[in-house]
Amino acid sequence: MASKPESRLALHVPVLGWRLKAIIPVAAVLLAGVGVFVWVTLSLEGTTQEPARHVVIWVAAAGGVAICSVVLVVLALLIERPLTELQQKIARLEDGDLTVRVNFAGRQDEIGELGRHFNEMVRQLASNREEIERLHRTQMSRAEHLATLGELAAGLAHEIRNPLAGIAGVIEIIGRDLPETSPSRDVLKDVQQEVLHIKQILSELLDYARPRRSDIRAADLNATVEHAIALARQQALSRPIEIRFAPADNLPPVEHDAAQMQQVLLNLLLNALQAIAGAGSIRVAVERRDAHAVITVADSGRGIAPENLANIFRPFFTTKGQGTGLGLSLAQRIVEDHGGWIEVESQPGAGTKFAVRLPLQRPATVVK
Fold it and tell me: Who's near 151: CB < 8 A, 6+ residues apart?
């Protein structure tokens, strides 16, 4: 594994700290003042003249003033000036100007190190903003492309539906006219099944291309889930599969579209039924986690291969011969429109677990 390259900032090693830089001038003035004071004191030693004592006092006072002046100048040059500049550059940065740079970054001390880190941070922010803008342009272009394809798909679906209805009607008439013993009846049943399959594909395609507006309202999520389970149990009556439900206790009303969430859960449940070859079980549970309600659908089926797990929410991706590949994609979009998301865990031979997370109260930014 390649080692991570060291940052360029690590090459700038402070030679002299700002504290030492501040102490050296003050110490020099202090030593000079002490020297002058000692020299004056020795020069006037033994004299009792009053003016001589005044000279000593004035020399000491002048030394104190000089030391204070040097301290103020040093602090102004070493600390106050770069801090003032940093505040001004941060204010420009808050206004969105990512071209700002501090001028004291060349200093070989801690203040200079701070300046270099600031300049590097601004450079990275500018680079990240360019990348975000590029991704935004790409996503917008992709969204426009998908919208165009959606309109085209919806138009084609409508155009196909009309002749398909005519075909279905003709097949039904032919089936009524055939004798009971005719072997063609079995063929007609297969044709009718394929027509129904095409209708299902068109319906899902229309739902994906032109989703209806959500009817979001606070309602009992346990009841919504239980209704979807009741529909799924009808599909499993002739199979040795047990569907268990564990509702959440004391769950407050959750803002959701009951019909759409039933569609999402029914899709997950039907996928779970199809993943179980023989006997098995499906466990559905609702629980509250902080500000979210979580619906889990766990089955004991064959699981999903790792290479397919990352693609199951892609439109038209399917591992089933009779699938359209739109069910999970549509389910994900419905959940995201509710302000939530879907998580999935799966291992081949160990089953699959889907978790649908919904906020108890939909964020204002998601409301359309």
Answer: 209
The domain in which residue 332 lies consists of 217-359
* Number of domains making up the chain: 3
Q: How far apart are CA 203 and CA 165, in angstroms?
A: 13
Using alpha carbons, list the distances in angstroms from residue 97 to 91, 93, 119: 9, 5, 13
Amino acid letter, 198: I
Q: Are residues 178 and 66 in the same domain?
A: no
Structure tokens at 3: 């080692």
Query: Final residue of a domain: which of 192, 209, 226?
Result: 209
The one-letter code for the residue type at 38 is V
19-66 pLDDT, tens digit per residue, is 555 555 656 666 666 665 556 555 655 555 555 555 555 655 666 666
Q: Are residues 171 and 64 in the same domain?
A: no
Task: State pTM to two decimals.
Answer: 0.51
Q: Which of 21, 23, 6, 5 is nearest to 112 (CA)?
A: 21
Q: What is the identity of the amino acid at 340?
A: G
